[in-house]
Amino acid sequence: MDMIAPLYAGLLGLLFLHLSIRVISLRRHHKVSVGDGGEKALSKAMRVQANCVEYASIGLILLFGAELQGAPTWAVHGLGVTLLLGRVLHAFGFGSTPQIVPARVWGMALTLGMILIASLSNIIRAVI
User: Fold this and answer.
1) Which strand (E) or helix (H) includes residue 31?
2) Is 101 exposed, middle or buried (0-12, 13-18, 19+ CB in 10 A)?
3) How far apart are CA 43 and CA 23, in angstroms?
4) In a designed cystine with 114, which of 1, 53, 57, 83 is the match (CB 3.0 to 4.6 A)?
5) Tens digit of pLDDT for each residue in 83-93?
6) Are 42 and 23 spatial neighbours (Cβ–Cβ below 8 Å)?
7) Is 85 exposed, middle or buried, given 0-12, 13-18 or 19+ CB atoms closer than 10 A?
8) Cα dihedral sign for 27, 28, 33, 39?
9) 21: which residues sit within 8 A by CB, 6+ positions away?
10) pTM for the complete prediction?
11) Over the stretch 31-51, which tens digit does the pLDDT of each residue have?
């Protein structure tokens, strides 16, 4: 059986790598080994990276759960695309200087919407 959720895990992994490389680059540029060294750009890049992991992790757990419980292919792809698009938009909006607030807001709305729908789906499928 081909699984769908690993596709979105891989794509989100690539987003995380991109954000990590940005943090590493800023650490090297500002010669900061631990913490943010008081550098605003590094602090912001670190928060963008951390925010990605915080939300993508629970989203992926829920996505895998929905797929393992037999959610339709279209639904798993819909949830996966929503999570991925939400995380990309949020990282772009939050990581830009100045911030692009509509992208950040839409990114969080998509992410939280995906988490809500996937959570309810997992609960309903588990108890029925």
Assistant:
1) none
2) exposed
3) 9
4) 83
5) 999 999 999 99
6) yes
7) middle
8) negative
9) none
10) 0.93
11) 888 888 888 999 999 999 999
